[in-house]
Amino acid sequence: MTIAPVQRTATPGWTDARLILELEAVVETELDRHLKAAKEWMPHEYVPWSQGRDFDGVLGGEAWSLDQSKVTPLARVSLVVNLLTEDNLPSYHHEIASMFGREGAWGTWVHRWTAEEGRHGIAIRDYLLATRAVDPVELERARMSHMSEGFESDNAHSMLQSVAYVAFQELATRIAHRNTGHHSGDPLCDQLLAKIANDENLHMVFYRNLLKAALEIAPDQAMRAIADVVTDFRMPGHGIPGFERAAAQIAIGGIYNLRIHHDDVLQPVLRKLKVMEVTGLGPVGQQAQDELGVFLDGLDSQATKFDERQAALLARRAAAAAAKQQ
Ligand SMILES: [Fe+2]
Ligand SMILES: [Fe+2]
User: Which residues form the signal peptide (predicted)?
Assistant: First the structure.
């Protein structure tokens, strides 16, 4: 006699409203853990105010010019993408407040998260303006254009997809800030971005732990959501003017590319949650897990091809630079 495996999705089709209610206790625990782990820090301490001076215009100071910028050309591109991404916080707040609600533990988290994220944009903008790292006029026009477009999540239709997306996206943002700092050529910029990256990491842990609980409560639906998010992932800054070109430079420069996305963002979350090891799934979850496996293998090979193209391009650039010096 065979015993039918226990179906963990005894209640088929969890609605978003029921999941939000069911996860409230987990949010409370995670919020508590987050508040204990998050250390207060002051954005103004990371800005070298003594380097700042008036700009042209109302105060008749000195206009910005490229030679004033001390960060690397790659960091200039990446810092702007990172800042504009942070700048769209009102849209992100709207998205998560609409999805998770503004009451109870969920509401406390939504507001606390928003306050922490607000610090990132403030700190980066103050740093960029005080050090004259980027063109302030171009930056302001890009901000106006980007924010005027608003941001609509690809996952707004599903609570589980939203949680899965932010678990990966917070880690992606952490890595993007951290690597931008490493490539900036300015130890203070590196320090500031490490601080911000630390916040993003704590956000990732919050959402990852929530996703873990969701996998236990509704394994099939959560597996489907993870597969959908992973196979269709794009960064929240994709609407930034000139994003494609900037993303290509950021990829070649080693700040964020397919290899990093696969190795440092997708895999750590999937491994920690043991997503590929979940057993006892129903047909929906099983299919999603299989799709995920196939996708990850494909992405790994694509990343290897990218690695080769990147190495070849960098070698050509180095040869050209050496030839110029002779
Ligand atoms: Fe942030
Ligand atoms: Fe974050």
Answer: none
